[in-house]
Predict the structure of NADP-dependent oxidoreductase.
Amino acid sequence: MKAIALNEYGGPDDLTLTELPDPKVGPDAVLVRVKAAGVNPVDWKVGAGYLDPVLDAHFPLVPGWDVAGVVESTGPDAKEFAPGDEVIGYVRKDWAQNGTYAELVAAPVRTLARKPAALSWQQAAGLPLAGLTAYQSLRRLGVGEGDTVLVHAAAGGVGSLAVQIAAAWGARVIGTASERNHDFLRELGAEPVAYGEGLADRVRGLAPGGVDAAFDFVGGESIEVSRQVLKDSSRVLSVVDAEVMAKGGHYLFVRPDPADLAALADLADAGKLTVGVDRAVPLAEAAEAWRLSQSGRTRGKVVIDVS
């Protein structure tokens, strides 16, 4: 199969299009013919070795945890799926090696759900990791009907999905973003506020009584600003900075969960959730996808079109 691989830790310039053996399929896994692969910041962080203290890597390393594709074959105890099924997955394993930037990926059934019919292959590939991060974050803080929530980096991959999920659950959403993305946030159902000095005052102007929950999807000053505008300073969650726990808040590292993935697919098919694709690039141009992700200026998702 064709795949993008690293032969040692490195950056975009070290990614190579290569031929590798087809992956082995375990008893509780399926072989997926990849249509598209989502790109996430964790991909290039793993590739650079930033997660080496907590995640073993084996080379050649094929990056990528997000996939949308078609089941080609199944292991003997993978009864949940059959050849021809269209699936999405957050295919994170306990080590880094056989990722989704490839024509084929072996995916444990615990990482998969059926692809939402309402989304294209590219959109579907951008949903799993970012969607699960948003979904599990909102659920961790118990967001629901009538809450006012603050979402930092609301135009990004995770933030744009969090806005839509919170709105679908009946919450009012205030989202931070650069001014060029404010109309985009309004379309998603958020009330936009600009980044920068005076952010807390701008949020208070929209929610004088404070917000019920706040979500840090970008880092920087987001946690401190959130604590200034929260009714309860403990209801702040970060997926970027684990130090939030020392301040009484919550840290989340997204987990594969087929039930959560299925819930996201249901929201998409109900017309309550879509995935904005900022850019799709061919497999051979994965380096450009990493550079776009590293820029931090994308609106929605970057994906790799494998088909």
About this structure: The chain has a mean pLDDT of 97. The radius of gyration is 19 Å. The longest strand covers residues 29-39. The CA atoms of residues 124 and 208 lie 38 Å apart.
